[in-house]
Amino acid sequence: MIMKKLLILLLAIAAIQVHAQDLPHYKRIVKELSSAKYQGRGYARGGANKAGEYLEKEYRKAGVDAVIRQPFTIDINTFPGRMEMWADGKKLKAGVDFSMREYSPGVKGEFPVYHVDTLDFDADRMFADLARPENENCLVCCEFWFTYRHREAFARLQSRDGAPNAGLLYTWTSPIKFYKAYGHRVVDKPIIWVTPESVEGVRSVRVNVENEFLEGYGLFNVIAKVEGERHDSCYVFTAHYDHLGNLGRRVRYAGANDNASGTAAIVTLAAYYAGHRPPYDMYFLSFSGEDANLRGSEFYADHPVVPLDRIRYLFNIDMIGDNNPVQYCEVSDEGMRGYALFERINVDKGYFKALDRGELAANSDHYPFAVRHVPCIFLENQEGDAFPYYHTIYDDWKHAVFDSYEPVFRLVTDFIGQY
Ligand SMILES: [Zn+2]
């Protein structure tokens, strides 16, 4: 009887070790990367690079065989300084009531507000209105998706020669998102995202925003390698560790879900494989510059440390800090050969209620590999409790969710065991 119990216990321990996902380790890394030390892992205050240095140490601690730094440069618009705005004298909160379009210049002054008549829109009438003296040097305020449907007119409003307005206020979601950090140029006029309620009926705004355009700014990818029994091909894990960084001096985007979650997941996978000699070489690519439009992964795909055609399968993990029981994924054409296996494992083990495969898109670091014919899958847990915080200041440690880590870990390690 005792022997039988012991045997069950031993089997249970063996089963744990087969998987060895490490939730405490994972949480520690998410917490660290979301902390103020890394300033939202952006480009304005060196936060991304500081996070890269931390990751190099973490990979070494995990016991990998090699850690390589791969530098590259980007041009990027940032907002490291003043970030203030008042609407009819009422102070607005940066990152909550307003944020900046990624390619906006800085702006300082007091401006009348011209509200676009979206119910009875007439572009000619709008341009005639803007030529009136009372609208001189105004900010044109309009709902973003409306401007998107009338792109031509609003493109004119954005250019210095197209219209006399000083800039634009785009109303959008609440809390406001700092949508992207893709500012590889700076446009003529300031463009400010605002929540509808903070500018409704407002007659004038005062703004003081500083931008800084960084040219040839240095970032780096961190590449960790665990040697397998065979070197003729390899498995690759990718996750970006950069995020949106700062919006002015005080506001930072911690990015606990996007993508401290994926970053931490692949470090724990590296630790796992470092302790269990894998059948093939394993590479763990922590990319920077993703939130600046996939710059790190594009650079790597053009300068890979092993030829891309030796990749058996690539797993890109971006935003798994959530709890939707249905797991979203995208798969490259060449990756479809393995997709049936993912589905079979998932059904057998019940890790997720289902996998939901969407259209391949240039929305994360798998994309540069997918278009270069690498078999790959992108795993992102969408539309759980953390998802509404995407690209807001609330994607932080306080709102971090951990449910998807273990099933994702098990799904990919099972896959490698059977592929
Ligand atoms: Zn991301």
Word description of this protein:
With 419 residues, this protein is of the alpha/beta class. The protein contains 12 helices and 18 strands. The strands form 3 sheets. An 8-stranded mixed beta sheet has the order 1-10-14-11-15-18-16-17, sandwiched between helices. An 8-stranded mixed beta sheet has the order 3-2-9-5-6-7-8-4. Strands 12-13 form a two-stranded antiparallel sheet. 31% of the residues lie in helices and 27% in strands. The chain folds into 2 domains: 20-78 and 215-418, Zn peptidases (Aminopeptidase, 3-Layer(aba) Sandwich), CATH 3.40.630.10; 83-209, Glucose Oxidase, domain 1, CATH 3.50.30. The radius of gyration is 24 Å and the shape is elongated. It binds zinc ion. Residues 240, 258-259, 290, 318-319, 364 line the site of zinc ion.
What descriptive keywords fit this protein?
binds zinc ion, eight-stranded mixed sheet, Glucose Oxidase, domain 1, alpha/beta, Aminopeptidase, 419 residues
Mean pLDDT: 93
Helix/strand order: HHHEEEEEHEHHEEHEEEEEHEHEEHEHEH
The distinct ligands, each listed once, are:
zinc ion
CATH topology of the largest domain: Aminopeptidase
Strand content: 25-35%
Could you tell me how far the N terminus lies from the C terminus, measured between alpha carbons in angstroms? 39 Å
CATH class of the largest domain reads Alpha Beta
In angstroms, what is the radius of gyration?
24 Å
- The helix-and-strand class reads alpha/beta
Secondary-structure topology with pairs:
Elements: H1 2-19, H2 23-33, H3 47-61, E1 66-78, E2 83-87, E3 90-91, E4 98-100, E5 107-115, H4 123-130, E6 139-143, H5 144-149, H6 151-158, E7 167-171, E8 191-194, H7 196-199, E9 204-209, E10 212-226, E11 230-240, E12 245-247, E13 251-253, H8 256-275, E14 280-287, H9 295-302, E15 311-317, E16 326-331, H10 336-349, E17 354-357, H11 367-370, E18 376-380, H12 405-418
Parallel strand pairs: 5-6, 6-7, 7-8, 11-14, 11-15, 15-18, 16-17
Antiparallel strand pairs: 1-10, 2-3, 2-9, 4-8, 5-9, 10-14, 12-13, 16-18
Helix pairs in contact: 2-8, 10-12
The chain binds zinc ion.
The site of zinc ion (ZN) has 7 residues, from helix 8.
